[in-house]
Write a structure and sequence with these properties.
369 residues, mainly alpha, 14 helices, flat
């Protein structure tokens, strides 16, 4: 067997030649590889030089973090007036929830993180036992936020800010997933009535804007209920948001189901599995794994769409911000408000996106391209 020959300087055990590695080589290869790339690099650096220093000065170096009014901010510095956020952080976080009862919101949020831990991370200690707590958390969270049974009752009209966004977003995400899976299976069912009902529901919801459904929830839903019936507005919004998201989840899951080879179902039949077991143990795990990017994309869209509730009078962070700007002491600080709210949504949505990537890599079994 002849020994493999290498050209001088190309042996894999040798260090790369001088000038063929390191940061200078990377800069030359990626930024200055041709006259056109040199021109693009210089123009980009010039644009960044124009944008970044003034932005940093406005946001940090010349910003005012503590003041009592916008006039005070102007006297203390020429940058952003973050003192407005500092003064209103309570409303941005809790809405109009009673100050003396805000510990319940904090406790609910901490318990929510504990409940999500065994669902999102399979190496959680005592995971099986903690999953029971995850199942019980919706009841515990409702009791903490709304009150009763020993706690001071708090009307849901006092919900607002980030708390309201999380309540609507998390409830919509958690409830729409099982409904969406059921609709996807129903649309592929061999029973005509179930298939027809699932298809009609999905097509109707997908054909109507979410804002229209929210208006229906806020104004028209009571017309279809018995006289004298009162239906909490946030509960109506939760129902509409869940139904809206479940229709889109159903189509994403249906796409995953159609990507599964027919032989998988035939193999389940050969093993003697009934429909429920074949779906639970063979078909759905593969279909959901394929559908992860689409599912998370739908969840992110739903989370951002929660801002539409401001149109029907609920004060999410945007609504709180707009209402706070009507205070003459802080008028004209729209940029600070919208940047602050955008940062909150970016952190939440980016976290969901990164977890999606983590899940895809963890479940990667060779099908990823």
């Amino acid at each position: 067997m002849s020994e493999q020959q290498y050209a001088p300087g190309t042996h894999p055990d040798l260090k790369p030649p001088i000038g063929q590695s390191g940061i200078l080589f990377w800069l030359k290869k990626n930024l200055f590889s041709s006259p056109f790339n040199v021109l693009l690099t210089l123009v980009t650096l010039y644009v960044l030089w124009i944008i970044i220093p003034p932005t940093l000065n406005w946001a940090f170096f010349d910003a005012v973090f503590y003041a009592d009014s916008r006039a005070d901010c102007r006297e203390l510095g020429g940058g952003a007036c973050w003192a407005f956020i500092d003064k209103r952080i309570g409303q941005f976080t809790y809405g109009f929830y009673p100050v003396e009862e805000r510990w319940r919101v904090i406790l609910c949020f901490v318990l929510f993180l504990v409940a999500m831990l065994p669902i999102l991370w399979d190496k959680t200690p005592a995971r099986r036992k903690m999953l029971w707590f995850s199942l019980a958390f919706p009841v515990i969270g409702y009791w903490l936020l709304v009150g009763g049974f020993g706690l001071e009752p708090v009307e849901t009209t006092k919900f607002g800010g980030f708390m309201l966004t999380l309540v609507i977003g998390v409830t919509g995400i958690a409830c729409s997933m099982p409904i969406g899976i059921a609709l996807a299976l129903g649309r592929q069912s061999d029973m005509p009535i179930i298939r027809w009902l699932s298809t009609c529901f999905i097509e109707f919801i997908r054909g109507v804007p979410l804002i229209t459904l929210l208006f229906v929830a806020s104004t028209m839903l009571n017309y279809f209920l018995p006289p004298g019936t009162t239906f909490d507005l946030i509960l109506r919004v939760l129902i509409m948001v869940t139904l809206f998201s479940s229709a889109y989840i159903a189509e994403v899951v249906r796409g995953g189901l159609q990507a599964i080879p027919k032989g998988q179902g035939e193999a389940a039949d050969a093993l003697g599995l009934n429909y429920g077991k074949s779906m639970r143990f063979i078909i759905l795990p593969q279909a959901l794994k394929i559908s992860i990017p689409g599912i998370v994309n739908t969840f992110i869209g739903l989370f951002k769409d929660t801002t539409l509730v401001v149109i029907i009078g609920l004060l999410d962070p945007l609504g709180i911000g707009r209402a706070s700007l009507s205070d003459i002491k802080w008028a004209g600080l729209a940029a600070e408000v919208y940047i602050f709210v955008a940062l909150f949504f970016f952190i939440c949505c980016f976290s969901m996106s990164r977890y999606s990537i983590y899940l895809e890599n963890k479940l990667h079994t060779g099908h990823k391209r």
